[in-house]
Q: What sequence folds into this?
């Protein structure tokens, strides 16, 4: 499920104004199960806290002054041991927001470059904006409609927090008004790949992954569906498949060609044959 909020940025050219930003977000939660032999249930959730009462980060600016918002805390919780990837993008396809600027009647606040590393909010170029993950020590820019990785973990479970703030600097001549765009945060669970191996057992000529060829081993994601096939020696018929543990699901264990759905661990499938 993805939840979005509008970013509103207000700037007063004469007296102190208000900039609102950084309230849009999305979360990704996924579950899957493979019938009776095993079940895996990996979940991920994301909650944003902080900012003002609407969940926005608020900046008060005077003309010619730079400032940053209060930090928003992005709390990502997962029960998977492979960690997660947190990313963000700015903009919405079509219309005024099809860019990475903050757009208003008085023009735009341009985004810093995505590879920028501006030291401190006061060093942001006038009429530019950016984001910070370290409390305002450095600022960079987001990319239009393309995820930029903010944080990647590879082994954690539980909850991990990431702080996010925006900073901007107004020129002395910037027109007052509301400058806006949309930021989307996205968190995705990482997946640990598994190895599937097929072995020709007793009285079997071959056991392969696929319907032809000689592939007997491969790396896949949990929940992938594969075709496996055993060919018997002359004078023998298929007897069944044997799995090295309950790490997956065979749709038809007594069929020489069937579908295997991968589980969470490496697995070896042995196809064997018996006399006719």
A:
């Amino acid at each position: 499920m993805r939840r979005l909020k509008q970013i509103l940025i207000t700037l007063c050219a004469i007296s102190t104004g208000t900039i609102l930003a950084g309230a849009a977000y999305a979360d990704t939660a996924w579950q899957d199960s493979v019938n009776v032999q095993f079940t895996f249930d990996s979940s991920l959730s994301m909650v944003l806290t902080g900012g003002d009462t609407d969940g926005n980060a608020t900046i008060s600016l005077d003309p010619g002054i730079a400032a940053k918002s209060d930090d928003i805390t992005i709390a990502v919780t997962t029960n998977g041991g492979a960690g997660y990837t947190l990313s963000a993008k700015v903009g919405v396809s079509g219309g005024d927001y099809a860019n990475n600027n903050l757009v208003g009647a008085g023009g735009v606040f341009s985004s810093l470059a995505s590879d920028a590393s501006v030291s401190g909010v006061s060093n942001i170029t006038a009429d530019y904006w950016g984001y910070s993950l370290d409390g305002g020590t450095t600022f960079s820019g987001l990319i239009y409609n393309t995820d930029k990785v903010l944080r990647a973990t590879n082994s954690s479970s539980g909850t991990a927090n990431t702080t996010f703030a925006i900073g901007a600097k107004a020129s002395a001549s910037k027109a007052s008004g509301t400058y806006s765009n949309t930021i989307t945060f996205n968190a995705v669970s990482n997946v640990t790949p598994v190895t599937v191996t097929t072995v020709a057992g007793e009285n079997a000529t071959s056991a392969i992954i696929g319907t032809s060829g000689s592939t007997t081993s491969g790396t896949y994601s949990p929940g992938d569906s594969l075709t496996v096939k055993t060919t018997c020696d002359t004078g023998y018929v298929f007897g069944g498949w044997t799995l090295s543990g309950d790490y997956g699901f065979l749709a038809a264990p007594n069929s020489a060609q069937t579908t295997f759905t991968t589980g969470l661990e490496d697995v070896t499938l042995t196809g064997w044959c018996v006399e006719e």
